[in-house]
Amino acid sequence: MDLNVQNYRDAFEHRIYRFSLFSAVFTSLLISIIYAFAQMYLDALFGLIAFVLYLGVYQLYRQGKIGYDLATRIFVLSAGVLILGGFMVSSSVLDGYIFIILVPIIAIVLRPKVEAFVIITAYYALFLAINLLEIGAVTIEPRLLVLTLFVENIALFFVNSYVDETRRLRYNLVRQNSRLSHEVATDPLTGIANRRSFDEYIAERIETFAQTRSPFAFAIVDIDHFKEVNDTYGHDKGDEVLRNVAQILQQSIRADDFAARYGGEEFVIFFNDCTLEHGALLAERIRERIERSALLGERTLSVSIGVGAPVAGDTPNTIFSRTDEALYRAKQNGRNRVER
User: Is 265 a catalytic residue?
Assistant: First the structure.
């Protein structure tokens, strides 16, 4: 699954669960206080147990110690146990009618359709058993339980169908936006970042440097005599050379670095957390790797590289101009070399 889509799904589910659990925490605490003032201390105890349990589950979830599936299962099942237990000891018929529908609602919202159906069926089966065995403090008409089960499972089908369709449409929209963003930010020939991505990246990087002084080295890579490559071997071969050089650059940089095609036969690289000297060393390794690549068969393909580093007060234009001057010196000094 696309990472952006997965992040969206995780965030969407997290918001639903957080809202549901916060509602449960608030409600259970409020119910506990109301019962305590009404001197219904056993009912108040169940509300307090629910409050502590739900709050603890959410803390474990927020700290990453349990995942969404386990957290919501604990939430749904514990709600069922507490409500069933409270129903068995409560003397309020109204409570029985109010709280009997809470677990089905929670299950419909938080769990997949089939699992929610199983939970609701088991939940009402236990309610029915409590009534038939007459072990509860109050009795709810069995026919009402069966009717409620039937109605809620019909509602479950329609609600889940709507939710699933809504999620599917939203995920598809996120996926399409992710794909479009990737296409806009990627050079179609080489598959690496394009000029637009570079412009955004260098602006962000310079701003970060101004705030934190986090060092980096910046390199401009230019393929030597590329026009001759096109004239001698044809534009298809020239495109192949561009793709291969881009691949070498991408394979040669670290995970936190950045490479892009600037335009034509020029590429740019950011070596992050790197001094000018170290950046020049990394650029030299790239130059050597391209020289040994045999991309043109017996003819050697070479690149010239200019390397720069930011200084106080730099803008994207100033660091680019200074590095471009280093590239010009590399060209003037015979090409196939690194200058800084």
Answer: yes
